[in-house]
Amino acid sequence: MTSQRNISEFILLGLSYDQSIQIFCFVIFLLCYVALLAGNLLILISIRCSPLFHQSMYYFLIHISLIDICYTSTVTPKLIGDLLVERKIISYDNCMLQVFTMHFFGGIEIFILTAMAFDRYAAICKPLHYVVIMNRTRCNLLVLAAWAGGAIHAFPLFSTAIGLPFCGPNEIDHYFCDIFPLLKVACTDTYITGVPVIALSGMVILVTFIVLSVSYGYTTQSSLYLLVSYHCGHLYFGPVAFIYLRPPITLPEDKIFALFYTIIAPLFSSLIYTQRNSEMKKAMRKVWCPSVFSKEACN
């Protein structure tokens, strides 16, 4: 691979050249990242230390919170740090690592969202068989399958990125390394290379979106958990579909849409899961404010 490139780093052009805008974005994204970490850690600890851990839907929620932390952390800390410096540099190795981890954790999140939708479908449409269908062994297998699916999704994209020849220029018009911006700066005809990328990413997005929609459509009763999964999925899939379900080109809007699925969607998912779920709020009070919870229970 070394013979195919003569660069050791890339220059990220970031979100904006305006210093005042960069400072504003630094404050906003720092607050969002801290809130995301706090919210998801709160969910993780609250569920793990309460009886909710033995329910399959909260078991999946633990994993989605963990993946949200990992997924966002592949991009956001670097973005926040770069907003304070004039020259935004990322090494070749870290760039390739970022491509892999982004698609790896992103793929896992997509597949766990699908498992969550299936869990709610089974609970609502097959209530008599739900305990048998969604036993802990099957939940573990679904989570394992999600991790395997994330790896299967990420490795071809990583192999495509690491196989690209780079001979200059090395400026990436984005705030993180992704496959399409890298295709743009590679010193070869990348149109044919980009077609398999679209096919793979598009297939994952479309199939998962269809499964989520079918699960939602077959549900005949109201389920907050499924509704949240469905709408969080839309918040996540919309911007992803805009970027990956089109010819292998880059657009100025890509950076704005990328903010939705790298920062905004993971942040809002944790807020929605905690604030619109009475069982979660009850579990958090029991774990974090046991004395207050005891008084409420007595009353």
TrEMBL record:
<feature type="transmembrane region" description="Helical">
    <location>
        <begin position="20"/>
        <end position="45"/>
    </location>
</feature>
<feature type="transmembrane region" description="Helical">
    <location>
        <begin position="96"/>
        <end position="118"/>
    </location>
</feature>
<dbReference type="Pfam" id="PF13853">
    <property type="entry name" value="7tm_4"/>
</dbReference>
<keyword id="KW-1133">Transmembrane helix</keyword>
<keyword id="KW-0675">Receptor</keyword>
<keyword id="KW-0552">Olfaction</keyword>
<keyword id="KW-0716">Sensory transduction</keyword>
<keyword id="KW-1003">Cell membrane</keyword>
<dbReference type="InterPro" id="IPR017452">
    <property type="entry name" value="GPCR_Rhodpsn_7TM"/>
</dbReference>
<keyword id="KW-0472">Membrane</keyword>
<keyword id="KW-1015">Disulfide bond</keyword>
<dbReference type="InterPro" id="IPR000725">
    <property type="entry name" value="Olfact_rcpt"/>
</dbReference>
<feature type="transmembrane region" description="Helical">
    <location>
        <begin position="224"/>
        <end position="244"/>
    </location>
</feature>
<comment type="function">
    <text>Putative odorant or sperm cell receptor.</text>
</comment>
<dbReference type="GO" id="GO:0004930">
    <property type="term" value="F:G protein-coupled receptor activity"/>
</dbReference>
<dbReference type="InterPro" id="IPR050427">
    <property type="entry name" value="Olfactory_Receptors"/>
</dbReference>
<dbReference type="GO" id="GO:0005886">
    <property type="term" value="C:plasma membrane"/>
</dbReference>
<feature type="domain" description="G-protein coupled receptors family 1 profile">
    <location>
        <begin position="39"/>
        <end position="216"/>
    </location>
</feature>
<dbReference type="InterPro" id="IPR000276">
    <property type="entry name" value="GPCR_Rhodpsn"/>
</dbReference>
<feature type="transmembrane region" description="Helical">
    <location>
        <begin position="256"/>
        <end position="274"/>
    </location>
</feature>
<keyword id="KW-0807">Transducer</keyword>
<feature type="transmembrane region" description="Helical">
    <location>
        <begin position="191"/>
        <end position="212"/>
    </location>
</feature>
<comment type="similarity">
    <text>Belongs to the G-protein coupled receptor 1 family.</text>
</comment>
<feature type="transmembrane region" description="Helical">
    <location>
        <begin position="139"/>
        <end position="158"/>
    </location>
</feature>
<protein>
    <recommendedName>
        <fullName>Olfactory receptor</fullName>
    </recommendedName>
</protein>
<feature type="transmembrane region" description="Helical">
    <location>
        <begin position="57"/>
        <end position="76"/>
    </location>
</feature>
<dbReference type="GO" id="GO:0004984">
    <property type="term" value="F:olfactory receptor activity"/>
</dbReference>
<keyword id="KW-0812">Transmembrane</keyword>
<keyword id="KW-0297">G-protein coupled receptor</keyword>
